[in-house]
Amino acid sequence: MNAVSEDIKYRRILLKLSGEALMGDREFGLETDTVGRIAGEVKSVLELGCEVCLVIGGGNIFRGIEAASQGLERGTADYMGMLGTVINALAVQGALEHIGVHTRVQSAIPMSTVCEPYIRRRASRHMEKGRVVIFAAGTGSPYFTTDTAAALRAVEMDCDALFKGTQVDGVYSADPHKVSDAVRYESLTYHDVLAQELGVMDASAISLSRENEIPILVFSLQNSGEFANVVKGQGRYTVIRKDG
């Protein structure tokens, strides 16, 4: 276990990534260099003495809600999406272990041939020993997104904060890639996000975070070293926290 840096503001954290974050310049699947770069960002935070776990979406492989809108039964579509998250989790595990970071994948859908089943106390113990834990297969139930899974695991792991890595440096009033005068927020309350329908994470994830007072930090994972900066309270990010 690495010595804890005095600079860090959060001791135990969960990082939520979309599956699209692993695509790089591709339109589908995984880009090896991008996965490796993200693994490096995680390692840099681990070296600060943080305990780190991850939840990764599966949209780069299969999007259950889109398939459901095209006629596939929603429950089946969501289970297919969960399997996509397991593929991504194994890819990131491979990249992390390639650079010397001990990693465990735990799946909410048991598949003991390729990873561990999700067991809360075991996951917490892995993190105490300095291992990164990647939670796969969402919540294990259809009709819940990986955003909700991320909030749930952050609560179960008693995390100090939930970090949302995106392609922009915080939360905006609209997509800054499409709206030139979109307003960037330094901080928001959970109520602000829900009332303004800002779309940072789904309503269930925001509500669960609010009920358990887990702050959400939204930052750009595109900028090298930014993850570590935000963990230290530096860099550019938006924090979503307790109302008032």
The stretches of 5 or more residues where confidence is low (pLDDT under 50) are none
Question: What's the CATH H-level homologous superfamily?
Answer: Acetylglutamate kinase-like
Quantity of strands, as a count: 11
CATH architectural group: 3-Layer(aba) Sandwich
What's the Cα radius of gyration?
A: 17 Å
What is the succession of H and E elements?
EHEHHEEHEHEEEEHHEHE
Strand order of the largest sheet: 4-3-5-2-1-6-10-11-9
CATH class: Alpha Beta
In which range does the helix fraction lie? 25-40%
> How many domain modules?
1
SSE topology sketch:
Blueprint: E1 12-17, H1 32-46, E2 51-56, H2 64-69, H3 74-98, E3 103-107, E4 116-117, H4 120-128, E5 132-136, H5 146-156, E6 161-166, E7 171-172, E8 184-185, E9 187-189, H6 190-195, H7 203-211, E10 216-220, H8 226-231, E11 237-241
Parallel strand pairs: 1-2, 1-6, 2-5, 3-4, 3-5, 6-10, 9-11
Antiparallel strand pairs: 7-8, 10-11
Helix pairs in contact: 1-3, 5-7
